[in-house]
C-alpha cells in the first residue's frame, strides 16, 4: 500500500482527495494537514510514502514545508498540487525538493497515477510543466557555470539519458527511445545521480535545465 498524507488548507479539497485515493486498491490516506507547519510535524510521525502538498497555505506555505521535509529526510517524496500554473511555482517547487508537480484540475486517474509515479521514485513532470521550465531557464540566459562544468563527468550516453529524463520520459520510454533494456536505463540514471550528487530524477531534470542541456524545441 502507498501511504499518503494530504496537505491543504481547504477541507473540501482534503476530503475529496481522501475519498479518491482511499478508493484505490493500492493506496491509503494516513493523515491530513491544514498547513505546512502541521505537515512537517505529521510527516515526521507518520512517515508517509507520498505527501500531496498544496502551495498557498497560511502559517507555512507548501514550498517552505517541502524544503523542511526534504531537508529532514532526503528520501521523502512530495507531489506538489496547485491551481496556479505559473513558472515561479513550478521552478520553486522543484528547487525545493518536490518529486513532482500536478495541477488540481487533474482527473482522479491522473492524481492516482501521479502518486504511483512519485512513490516509485520517478519524477512527475507533465509536458506542460516541462515546457514552462525550459522557457524559464531560457529566459534566465547564461547557464550556471557549476552545472556546465559537472557535465564533463558524464559519458555521452549518460548525457543523452539525462536530456530524456529532463524531457519527462519514464525509464520505459527512454529504453524504447534508445532501443536498450529498461534495466540499462535504470543503471544509467543511478550513475548520473551519483556522479552529479543529486537525490532524484527531478533534481536531475532541474540540473539539465540549469546546464542548458535542454532548450526550446530540444
Fold and architecture overview:
This protein has 11 helices and 6 strands. The model has no long low-confidence stretch (mean pLDDT 83). The longest helix has 15 residues, at 182-196. Helix 1 (11-22) links the parallel strand 1 (2-7) and strand 2. The radius of gyration is 17 Å and the shape is globular. The protein folds into 2 domains: 2-121, Response regulator (Rossmann fold); 133-210, Response regulator (Rossmann fold, 3-Layer(aba) Sandwich), CATH 3.40.50.2300. Strands 2-1-3-4-5-6 form a 6-stranded parallel sheet, with helices on both faces. It has 218 residues and is an alpha/beta fold. It comes from Streptomyces platensis. Keywords: DNA-binding, Phosphoprotein, Transcription, Transcription regulation. GO terms for molecular function: DNA binding. The modification 4-aspartylphosphate is found at residue 54.
Short summary of the structure?
By secondary structure, the chain is an alpha/beta fold. The chain is built from 11 helices and 6 strands. It has 2 domains: 120 residues, Rossmann fold, CATH 3.40.50; 78 residues, Response regulator (Rossmann fold, 3-Layer(aba) Sandwich), CATH 3.40.50.2300.
